[in-house]
């Protein structure tokens, strides 16, 4: 046992603690890269699929939204599972199943079959982000958590920035079918790797000093400890708690607005470049990667800066909400695309907007800070459920608003939604403190 004085305890413990949690951060990062690669692969292939199958804009919107129907609907059951099944078992099971469904999208043709398989991908990806939050809550003290969340969240942008050009090239050289076969195979392999290497803090290579560092800093190292009594079933009061608190509704609505921008980039953005900006697949793949690079810079800066503010004594509310609100304000720059004919300026406006989206993407740190302690999974599920209703709304609404000649109504819709998100964090969240169950 590490012996320390009360004053300066965290510094002494930190100096002797092992670094097992670094490996966990890397594993979360890689998983998020694969997670978002399998969400975005359809948007890359969509122009070719639409051309081959002669799909209307409304049909494209329906296919692009199919993932979101099951993904959003199963967030609450997914959160329930996260509170009961260890991440070592639940995550690889989900990874392998959604990867198999992804690979079959490249094998089985037809509009209806693609919708059905995309629905299955949504089913098995549903617990993914609640699992990420569950792992982060167990493995990291509060003062490190935003940095870690920012790091693994950056995986969605790094993966898309680097892989979008590659997948666009793969499609141009072979066909859109191989986009799904390759991404599905990668995910299935990583599922086996997760099972082989992930462990809970007390079952891992983390030494006692690191466990103390995590626990004393607010990390819940004993979540799902097998030695704890069996958890009771979720009650009506539990559901009423996660649905009846103003603070929680603030982050729920804010997440819907934040992820609306993300889902624009994950669904309609490549089609916008190919059809409305008349680019070929390879050029559009390169330009589509630039906003993701900007978002990567935003999300990495956000987590580090938020934890820096916290260590300097700034309140938890300012440290966590400040980057989110500023990021949403920057996202409004997207409307600038409606006022220029220059493709270069469009990319600039959208890169600023997606930098802002990345800056605001530490919202899961508020789930960790606000969720009732024994309802972390359920709260995360509700947060992700409401937030990812945008995965349904964004593709469909934009598909109905845009015309063959103009994408402008789509950008207006995105700007209005972002303004609602700003109001949600300003007026509903209030003081950042854990909600009592």
TrEMBL record:
User: Per its UniProt record, what PROSITE patterns does this chain match?
Assistant: MFS
What's its membrane topology?
Answer: Multi-pass membrane protein
Q: Where in the cell is it found?
A: Cell membrane
Q: Which residues cross the membrane?
A: 20-37, 58-76, 96-121, 176-197, 248-266, 286-310, 322-340, 346-371, 383-402, 408-428
Q: Which residues form the Major facilitator superfamily (MFS) profile domain?
A: 24-433
Q: Which UniProt keywords apply?
A: Membrane, Transmembrane, Transmembrane helix
The highest taxon in the source lineage is Bacteria
InterPro entries given for it? Answer: MFS (IPR011701), MFS_dom (IPR020846), MFS_Na/Anion_cotransporter (IPR050382), MFS_trans_sf (IPR036259), Sugar_P_transporter (IPR000849)
Q: Which CDD domains match?
A: MFS_ExuT_GudP_like
Q: Which Pfam families match?
A: MFS_1
> PANTHER family from the entry?
D-GALACTONATE TRANSPORTER (PTHR11662:SF333), SOLUTE CARRIER FAMILY 17 (PTHR11662)
Q: What is this protein called?
A: MFS transporter
Q: Give the organism the record lists.
A: Rhodococcus jostii
Lineage of source species: Bacteria, Bacillati, Actinomycetota, Actinomycetes, Mycobacteriales
């Amino acid at each position: 046992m590490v012996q320390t004085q009360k004053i300066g305890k965290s510094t002494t413990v930190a100096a002797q603690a092992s670094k097992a949690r670094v490996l966990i951060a890397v594993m979360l990062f890689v998983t998020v890269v694969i997670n978002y690669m399998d969400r975005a692969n359809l948007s890359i292939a969509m122009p070719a699929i639409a051309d081959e199958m002669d799909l209307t804009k409304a049909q494209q919107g329906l296919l692009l939204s199919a993932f979101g129907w099951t993904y959003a609907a199963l967030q609450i059951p997914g959160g329930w599972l996260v509170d009961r099944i260890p991440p070592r078992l639940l995550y690889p099971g989900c990874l392998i199943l959604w990867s198999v469904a992804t690979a079959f999208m490249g094998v089985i043709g037809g509009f209806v079959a693609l919708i059905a398989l995309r629905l299955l991908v949504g089913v098995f990806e549903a617990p993914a982000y609640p699992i990420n939050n569950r792992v982060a809550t167990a493995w990291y003290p509060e003062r490190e958590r935003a940095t870690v969340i920012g790091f693994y969240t950056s995986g969605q942008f790094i993966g898309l920035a680097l892989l979008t050009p590659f997948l666009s090239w793969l499609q141009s050289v072979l066909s859109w079918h191989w986009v799904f076969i390759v991404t599905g195979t990668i995910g299935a392999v990583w599922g086996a790797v997760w099972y082989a290497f992930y462990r809970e803090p007390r079952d891992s290579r983390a030494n006692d000093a690191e466990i103390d560092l995590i626990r004393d800093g607010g990390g819940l190292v004993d979540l799902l400890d097998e030695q704890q009594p069996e958890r009771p079933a979720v009650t009506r009061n539990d559901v009423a708690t996660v649905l009846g608190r103003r603070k929680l509704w603030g982050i729920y609505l804010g997440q819907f607005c934040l992820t609306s921008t993300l889902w624009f980039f994950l669904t309609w953005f490549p089609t916008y470049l190919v059809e409305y900006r008349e680019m070929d697949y390879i050029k559009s793949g390169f330009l589509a990667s630039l906003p993701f690079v900007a978002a990567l810079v935003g999300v990495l800066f956000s987590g580090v800066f938020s934890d820096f503010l916290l260590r300097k004594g700034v309140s938890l509310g300012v440290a966590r909400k400040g980057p989110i609100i500023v990021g949403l304000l920057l996202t409004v720059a997207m409307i600038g695309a409606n006022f220029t004919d220059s493709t270069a300026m469009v990319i600039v406006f959208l890169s600023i907007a997606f930098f802002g989206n990345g800056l605001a993407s530490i919202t899961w740190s508020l789930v960790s800070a606000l969720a009732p302690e024994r309802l972390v999974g359920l709260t995360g599920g509700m947060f992700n459920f409401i937030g990812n209703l945008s995965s349904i709304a964004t593709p469909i609404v934009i598909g109905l608003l845009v015309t063959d000649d103009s994408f402008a109504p789509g950008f207006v819709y995105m700007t209005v939604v972002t303004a609602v998100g700003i109001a949600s964090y300003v007026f509903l969240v209030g003081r950042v403190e854990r909600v009592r169950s």
